[in-house]
Structures
1.
Amino acid sequence: MRTQVAIIGGGPAGLLLAQLLHNHGIETVVLERRTRDYVLSRIRAGVLETGFTDLMREAGVGERLDREGIVHDGAKLAYQGGTFRIDFERLTGRHVTVYGQTEVTRDLYQARDAASLPTLHGCSGVKPRDIDTGSPFITFLHGGKMNRLDCDFIAGCDGFHGPSRQAIPEKARTEHEKTYPFGWLGILSETPPVDDELIYANSPRGFALCSMRNPNLSRYYVQCALSDSPEDWPDDKVWDELKRRVPEEVAERLVTGPSIEKSIAPLRSFVCAPMRWGRLFLCGDAAHIVPPTGAKGLNTAASDVHYLYRALVRHYHDRDDDGLERYSDTALARIWKTQRFSWWMTNLLHRFPDQSGFDLHVQQAELAVLSENEAAQTALAESYVGLPY
Ligand code: APR
Ligand code: PHB
């Protein structure tokens, strides 16, 4: 088998990159470990920056997003029993769109199928080879036999646990990691959202987030201990805790119901440099992870895709490799800005076990400044709607 760009990983990063390259006549093959259903069963965040929605439209897969996505001109922060609003539209002229990652992935798979583009599910033992030569290839098990895919380039879009990052020699990799002493318990419920915008709450009992997927599908999160499991959080306890962590006027209008999904995710910041090694380019979670507080995971995968796809188009159409040479530095420059924002939002909104009285006062003062200072609100809004690519 041979292709121009071999893509490991059929998640949002891999599929969006593949669609954009296809639209410029560049051949791709996507190698995905899981089944299509498994990939589409993942529940992930759903707040898209304007850069992401523009990229989806550029890829020709923005139609359902434009029809069903919910435009949010602002978001609310809650602390000390009250809420205040960050008006994205007024402060930045831009907004975010609420549209689940599952739907993004579904739209991208449908576009790939419509173009009859090769996507192999159930691949195992995927291994990038000869990435430091001009003739890289991938070996993998599929259909009960060992396969080889020769290519010009490999895009490692295989998430945090995939093989691509490990294909960069360990001595050449610099990895930065920060773990947080808590997790997020998340539930989905077929109930109307408590508000028409997101509410991020800092409370003495810990963080809570009120989000949504559509007018009858709500997404809620509460900060929980890393030692917790979903079994420790029966629905009644989730709803009770959520009501205790949001202002009273929000709790009073909260519509509860049975959870249709419940999971716990730890919070972590991670960056791997470089994001390129020879003909291998890392994209998305394969290279970096952010805590979900700033809703930047999917959006940072999109900015990587933006840089890589344009660099590959310049290579194939203009025989110009400047974009490929600068990919890692360009992507990392923006990644660190989103890491900073995600770290800052996490420190702003969570209660830390080792938080001193001083730390707590500084945190509450930060929220107070945000509640009354337009410049501070604008800085938050600029990062939330998405820094320029
Ligand atoms: N071989 C083939 N595919 C693999 C392998 C492997 N060895 N390991 C992982 N994969 C696949 C996974 O099954 C997954 O479908 O790679 C894909 C990676 O997708 P994501 O983990 O969704 O990462 P990415 O596409 O970068 O999107 C980032 O997804 O996880 C969220 O929070 C994250 O919102 C962010 C977004
Ligand atoms: C979500 O809706 O899942 C969501 C929204 C905003 C975040 C994180 C998750 O910051």
Note: The mean pLDDT is 97.
2.
Amino acid sequence: MKTALITGAYRGLGFEVARQLTDRDFRVIITARHLNLGQVAAAKLANASFLELDINDPVSVGRAAKQVEQLDVLINNAAILSGDDQDILRLPAELLLATLTTNTLGALRIAQAFVPHLSKRAGGRIVNVSSGGGQLSEMGTWAPAYCISKTALNAVTCQLAAALRADGIAVNSVCPGWCRTEMGGAGAPRSVEEGAAGIVWLAADAPQGQTGLFWRDRQVIPW
Ligand code: NDP
């Protein structure tokens, strides 16, 4: 049985990814920074356990990493999008910094902490949940801090993919599409099930040799 760890997984896409992976006979480690909410979420699924993990807190990350032995898949799902993230010309530096801290640095910190636990020759995987908003080829004016943080996350994906290629660990970014979650809002066109499916495919089914790429709906998309 393979094991997957998912950040920010007590709700939204993270929880749905956990649910779909347990349906696929994965053992899932749901992580979240809220102890009670995380425990309640994990209790809903067979083969799920919970670990308290704030991706911005090095102490929390170090403590969580010590409690994990062998991992097959690491899914960097946790992220923030501020309602004040509106206008590049008036974007407060603090807001950009806070968004980069969680969405980019947080994901990198998690990768650094958990790569030593990832299976190597047996085909470890890191899936970074990014966003079409981070595509340089499609960049507009929407949510500048969030989009910049996801572009930078995609660069983290490329760096990690190159660094881990020789170990046989695949590292990819994925856009789930615009989904009805707290972040996506009720008006989004996709369900969480649809959004999670592409993440689950990368975690479980994508050919192991596919690494250093950006995906949506099982297709490679431009950076
Ligand atoms: P939600 O806002 O529903 O979930 C985000 C999760 O991240 C929450 O569980 C949140 O927990 C957690 N989180 C935030 N900061 C931290 C932290 N420091 N430590 C631990 N957990 C944290 O968002 P979605 O489910 O919609 O998004 C999941 C991923 O999909 C994100 O990476 C997002 O950028 C991406 N995405 C989503 C789209 C959409 O339309 N929904 C579109 C494109 C990409 P807490 O309550 O503690 O903040």
Note: The first strand starts at residue 3 and ends at 6.
